[in-house]
Task: inverse folding
């Protein structure tokens, strides 16, 4: 057969893959919606579980975040993987690959939340390493796929008739063009525009937030940078090319469709970015940035190149630096949600950041998502980035909170003072003062002898050590490396990480009472018979001093002003160093009012009081609790040295403590044990709240409530019935609670001269301290005799009602000896003096 030949054939490029109909697109849309609906509620639910466990005083639920991670990966990963494998469209395959990689990264990062929040530096370091490894793996997998040429730039006019289809870079092109970052090289116009956008996202956090310690800030920056690199790999030039970047007919397509897909991917990255609490603002801030990245890719292609991974890395990294570096996730908590505290300001910063992200998406989209738009120039882009960098610096320094505010370490030494063999001394105050002086002498001597070398070393390292003697310990600056070094020293028993609240851009409005003064004794005062003690026995607490360690005291309140002991050693504020009694939160004013307040609210209105601030914004730390307990053992004047200027003869007689030190604040079960033992040895009675973590059994756990030498108080209502919130025993060290007192709807003083009603064992505790003040006023020989005082209180208590079917063993673990009876206790105290 004769072969007919003609001119050589011109190769015809293969047609682009054809869509298989609307169903793959529908599947992608539904998968994206499903991914968001699984990811966001899963993260919020996990955080809420953490908060409920925290507020309830339960042990941390370590399984929460692994379960959330596994559920999210399975529920989102399966449809995303099917999307990556099934469709013929490059856009759908790129979508599936990005979402599959995003959800796997989410799962790996979420697992890191098993690290306790108190070890935030360790978590941030692990997050940085994990994100970097994921980015490396993703890059290597990307390079194994065939590389397609990058897309052509947007033409200036309509396509030339007869021209073949524009070559499209597949998703695998990321590795080939990762270095192509727009005009001007690595810091060309497009990367500079991304930096400007990232700095704009950082601006609100420079105003509302505050940095942690040096190592914490460095690790937060590294974690944000690593997550940015991971975002750059997942959303590189190959990703955008798959959506038709470079098409003359549909230039907006990569910005809109690609932006939606990128936004879902960023949602998954945000879900894993940060310890529980820090990821919540990221879930709001990152998704709109998908459209910004689409516009930046379009801008790069106007200049003839793919954008590369740098724009996504800069933009996402800077956007995440805000919530990671400028907030402490431990403070994004329901415990601080009642006032304008960290949760409020984080919400403000998140809202402002979201508005900035939307404006960036619209502005960059209008500028660059058009086929006839010109390529961005490096000069204006550099000017914009520089201006925003200067703005961030000015905002941080002027209206912001400049400086480092990391957690502090409490170094507890092995050797504690030997307080055995103290002389009994004379009965009453003289004997108490002698014992207090000897306890103070021994404590200080032990601390001075054992701390000297460590103090000098810490000072030489500029770690700002603060010594303590009530517990032989030193508070110091330092991160994980310093903690590890200190833990290895032979004289150190353990090192605790103490909470240090970061400053706020504006103080919360001070608490104010909104009800008038009562017209007579309040119901709780009458329920325990304190008003009968005044009227029938003529005892009001005169001659006894009550010490309050709390949020402070409104020293001008009409119910409290006259009872202040005065002098230069009756008030101490280690937080703000205020010289006169004051109270921002109101809790301390309320509790002290129930102990010694006048106008019918206090059990012992004739007693005097001294005060100390150990809570700031409802948070404390082991060191701040020690500051106040030391002051109560040996008060000192303003600016005085607790080691040399303490005055044990001026110690108050009984202490009311409506606080507890949970692990969140840095305490372990024995953190304050030497402190309460020393106070008891000195003859100072420590009364403490059982806690509000009922009705769980064994919920009296936070120091100092479980300690045997502390008088621990639960709460009942008007019907003498145990409240649901009152913490229960059994406690590990002793039978707890010891007593109960009224703690539901208790009226008392509040800052500003008014009154309010509150619930809690905090409200019950000062009433028992007031009863002790009445007893010791009636019989001064009992002052400092803690055993007889506790025995009288237990013997004279009246029955309290226990809910039917209540668990936790017998009533002893629920209400202790029963409801305190002021009238019976004072009569018994008087009989003791004559008997």
Result:
């Amino acid at each position: 057969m004769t072969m007919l030949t003609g001119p050589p054939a011109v190769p015809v490029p293969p047609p682009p893959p054809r869509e298989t109909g609307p169903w793959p697109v529908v599947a992608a849309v539904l998968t994206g919606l499903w991914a968001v609906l699984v990811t966001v509620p899963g993260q919020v639910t996990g955080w809420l579980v953490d908060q409920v466990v925290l507020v309830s005083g339960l042990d941390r639920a370590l399984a929460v975040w692994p379960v959330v991670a596994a559920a999210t990966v399975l529920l989102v990963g399966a449809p995303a993987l099917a999307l990556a494998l099934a469709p013929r469209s490059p856009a759908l395959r790129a979508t599936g690959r990005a979402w599959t990689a995003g959800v796997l990264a989410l799962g790996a990062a979420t697992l890191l939340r098993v690290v306790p929040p108190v070890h935030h530096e360790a978590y941030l370091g692990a997050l940085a390493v994990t994100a970097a490894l994921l980015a490396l793996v993703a890059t290597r997998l990307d390079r194994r796929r065939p590389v397609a040429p990058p897309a052509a730039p947007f033409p200036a006019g309509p396509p030339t008739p007869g021209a073949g289809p524009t070559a499209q870079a597949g998703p695998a092109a990321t590795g080939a063009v990762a270095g192509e970052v727009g005009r001007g090289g690595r810091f060309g116009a497009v990367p500079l525009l991304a930096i400007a956008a990232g700095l704009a996202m950082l601006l609100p956090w420079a105003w509302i937030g505050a940095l942690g310690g040096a190592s914490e800030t460095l690790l937060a920056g590294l974690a944000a940078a690593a997550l940015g690199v991971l975002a750059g790999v997942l959303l590189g030039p190959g990703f955008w090319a798959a959506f038709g970047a470079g098409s003359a007919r549909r230039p907006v397509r990569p910005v809109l469709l690609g932006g939606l897909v990128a936004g879902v991917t960023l949602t998954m990255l945000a879900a894993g970015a940060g310890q529980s609490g820090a990821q919540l603002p990221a879930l709001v801030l990152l998704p709109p940035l998908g459209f910004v990245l689409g516009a930046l890719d379009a801008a790069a292609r106007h200049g003839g190149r793919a954008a590369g991974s740098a724009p996504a890395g800069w933009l996402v990294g800077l956007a995440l630096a805000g919530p990671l570096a400028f907030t402490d996730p431990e403070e994004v908590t329901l415990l601080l949600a009642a006032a304008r505290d960290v949760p409020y300001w984080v919400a403000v910063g998140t809202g402002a950041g979201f508005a900035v992200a939307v404006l960036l998406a619209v502005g960059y989209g209008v500028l660059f998502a058009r086929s006839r738009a010109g390529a961005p120039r490096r000069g204006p882009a550099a000017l914009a980035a520089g201006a925003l960098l200067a703005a961030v610096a000015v905002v941080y320094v002027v209206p912001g909170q400049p400086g480092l505010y990391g957690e502090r370490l409490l170094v507890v030494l092995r050797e504690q003072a030997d307080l055995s063999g103290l002389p009994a001394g004379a009965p009453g105050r003289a004997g108490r003062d002698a014992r207090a002086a000897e306890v103070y002498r021994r404590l200080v001597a032990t601390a001075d002898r054992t701390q000297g070398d460590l103090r000098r070393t810490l000072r030489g390292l500029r770690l700002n050590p603060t010594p303590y003697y009530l517990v032989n310990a030193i508070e110091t600056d330092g991160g994980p490396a310093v903690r590890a070094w200190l833990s290895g020293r032979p004289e150190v028993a353990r090192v605790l990480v103490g909470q240090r609240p970061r400053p706020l851009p504006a103080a919360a409005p001070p608490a104010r009472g909104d009800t008038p003064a009562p017209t007579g004794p309040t119901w709780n005062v009458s329920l325990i018979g304190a008003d009968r003690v005044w009227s029938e026995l003529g005892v009001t607490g005169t001659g006894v001093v009550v010490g309050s360690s709390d949020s402070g005291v409104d020293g001008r309140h009409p119910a409290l002003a006259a009872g202040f002991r005065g002098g230069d050693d009756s008030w101490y504020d280690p937080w703000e160093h205020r010289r006169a009694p004051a109270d921002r939160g109101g809790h301390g004013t309320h509790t002290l009012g129930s102990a010694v307040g006048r106008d019918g609210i206090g059990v012992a209105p004739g007693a005097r009081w001294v005060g100390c601030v150990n809570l700031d914004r409802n948070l404390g730390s082991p060191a701040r609790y020690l500051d106040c307990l030391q002051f109560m053992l040996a008060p000192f004047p303003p600016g005085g040295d607790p080691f040399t200027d303490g005055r044990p003869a001026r110690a108050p007689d009984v202490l009311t403590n409506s606080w507890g030190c949970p692990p969140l604040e840095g305490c372990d079960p024995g953190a304050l044990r030497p402190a309460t033992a020393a106070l008891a040895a000195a003859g100072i009675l420590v009364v403490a709240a059982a806690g509000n973590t009922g009705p769980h059994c064994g919920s009296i756990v936070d120091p100092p409530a479980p300690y045997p030498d502390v008088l621990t108080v639960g709460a009942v209502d008007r019907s003498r019935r145990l409240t649901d919130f009152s913490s229960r025993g059994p406690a590990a060290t002793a039978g707890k609670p010891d007593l109960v007192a009224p703690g539901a709807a208790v009226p008392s003083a509040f800052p500003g001269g008014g009154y309010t009603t509150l619930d809690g064992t905090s409200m019950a505790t000062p009433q028992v301290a007031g009863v002790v003040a009445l007893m010791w006023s009636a019989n001064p020989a009992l002052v400092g005799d803690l055993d007889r005082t506790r025995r009288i209180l237990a013997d004279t208590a009246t029955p309290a009602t226990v809910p039917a079917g209540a668990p936790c063993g017998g009533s002893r673990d629920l209400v202790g000896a029963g409801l305190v009876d002021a009238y019976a206790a004072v009569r018994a105290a008087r009989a003791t003096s004559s008997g």
Summary: The chain has a mean pLDDT of 89.
